[in-house]
Amino acid sequence: MKFLYFVEKLGHFFFRRRSYASIPLFAFFFLFGRSSWHFFFLAMILIISGELIRIWAVSFSGPATRTRIIKAPFLAVRGPYEIIRHPIYFGNLLVGLGFTFSLTRNFIHILLFVAFFIVFYGSIIFAEERFLENRFQEEWVRYKEKVPLIIPRYFKKPYFGDLKTAFKSERSTFITISVILFLALFKLFVFPRLNFW
């Protein structure tokens, strides 16, 4: 019980810092990793796919996903939320893997990102689901029983919600993607063998 309480508190702590918590990790990959053009093109596919999933999700969940505290004015159950309960974090996984591959091809570095993602977003998801269960009660329980956590059981033809709001909400993500890709290209073009290790 104490452990679950700790995980929930940790999830709230991480949620408030989720916009910048991964910066040291990607800075480490930039300094000590070596990528390649093959990995960079794979990274582009992952980043674009992940960001499209994020846009799709935010078009239904709205700008409440950008707050610094966990809250939900309504329970999002349409669009990608019909397939998985946390499509934004699934998109984050793809984008984060893309960032990693754009900066390093080191297997240990990739495992390091995966471990970071599991601990960081696992805690956030636990805290969010506790909040949603308290906020929406039976509605949440019924939804949780039908829809898997983060790995989809099936795929369906996408339809979109409020794309204007989604694109507006994702501006900071677009900037982050641009900065990471610029650094990755800079490293590949200017210092193809840059490695401070």
In short:
68% of the residues lie in helices and 0% in strands. By secondary structure, the protein is mostly helical.
| Strand element count | 0
Quote the distance from N terminus to C terminus.
42 Å
Topology as H/E string? HHHHHHHH
Strand-residue proportion: under 5%
Helix share of residues?
55-70%
| Radius of gyration, in angstroms, nearest whole number | 18 Å
Report the principal-axis shape.
globular
Can you give the mean pLDDT?
89
Structural class: mainly alpha
Largest sheet: none
The number of helices is 8
Low-confidence stretches: none
Q: In total, how many domains does the architecture comprise?
A: 1
Helix-strand blueprint:
Layout: H1 2-16, H2 23-32, H3 37-61, H4 87-103, H5 107-136, H6 138-146, H7 163-169, H8 171-190
Report on the structure:
This protein is mainly α. It has one domain (21-189). Helix content is 68%, strand content 0%. The chain contains eight helices and no strands. The longest helix has 30 residues, at 107-136. The protein is globular.
